[in-house]
Amino acid sequence: NAGVMQNPRHLVRRRGQEARLRCSPMKGHSHVYWYRQLPEEGLKFMVYLQKENIIDESGMPKERFSAEFPKEGPSILRIQQVVRGDSAAYFCASSPGSQNYGYTFGSGTRLTVV
Amino acid sequence: DQQVKQNSPSLSVQEGRISILNCDYTNSMFDYFLWYKKYPAEGPTFLISISSIKDKNEDGRFTVFLNKSAKHLSLHIVPSQPGDSAVYFCAASAPGSARQLTFGSGTQLTVLP
């Protein structure tokens, strides 16, 4: 049973381009969380999704960022018109239910905006 | 506003001795606390947790202590091993928050052989 799979591991984008980060949760997990870690900081919550539903997006920047978790396929975090400040490590985590606290993280996608 | 604080960015400990990592929080609504360990270029790995109804939880070499009145928790690792060298994050969760975690900024633990 593979863990939480994130790809790509590294992504380089020029300013103004779009970045798409993918996350496949663990088998049997229907809850996905996205976190962002800026350099020298802890992880910051972005969004919590269940299949086809956004449950809590209180941590998402108001513009340029969106997330989805379709019925089929991975969860996608999309960043439009990237800026240098978007450079960070983006981690996805999954759990089987909203009450499972120690959820499992993927290895992250390191986004570099040049 | 940092609701979870880890005031020591780094800690060095001799192999075999005790490592004590500290964490303070300000939000009295937090009712569940977790410690994660993170190696470079990897995601955080869940280590141990504690509910606010307890003051201690132990799992092998790892023990977490919670002092609710002081809004303080600590992670004890005994005995420390070189493989424990990593960044340790404290995290907290509040009820009704969709179980999103609020993380501290981490403490880099180095265990010297």
H/E order of the elements of chain B?
EEEEEEEEEEE
What is the mean predicted local confidence, pLDDT of chain A? Answer: 92
The total beta strand count of chain A reads 11
Unreliable residue stretches of chain A: none
Please bin the fraction of helical residues of chain A.
under 10%
Overall mean pLDDT of chain B: 94
Q: Give the helices and strands of chain A as they follow along the chain.
A: EEEEEEEEEEE
Radius of gyration of chain B: 13 Å
Distance between the termini of chain B: 38 Å
Number of strands of chain B: 11
Cα-based radius of gyration of chain A, to the nearest Å: 13 Å
Shape of chain B: globular
Proportion in β-strands of chain A: over 45%
How many strands, which pairing sense, and closed or not: the largest β-sheet of chain B?
A: 6 strands, mixed
What assembly state would you assign to the polypeptide chains in this entry?
A: heterodimer
Describe the structure in your own words.
- Chain A is about 0% helix and about 50% strand.
- By secondary structure, chain A is mainly β.
- In chain A, strands 2, 4, 5, 6, 9, 10 and 11 form a 7-stranded mixed β-sheet that branches. Chain A has a 4-stranded antiparallel β-sheet with strand order 1-3-8-7, with no helix packed on it.
- The model of chain A has no long low-confidence stretch (mean pLDDT about 90).
- By secondary structure, chain B is an all-beta fold.
- In chain B, strands 2, 4, 5, 9, 10 and 11 form a 6-stranded mixed β-sheet that branches. Chain B has a 5-stranded antiparallel β-sheet with strand order 1-3-8-7-6, with no helix packed on it.
- Chain B is globular.
- Chains A and B meet through strand 5, strand 9 and strand 10 of A and strand 4, strand 5, strand 9 and strand 10 of B.
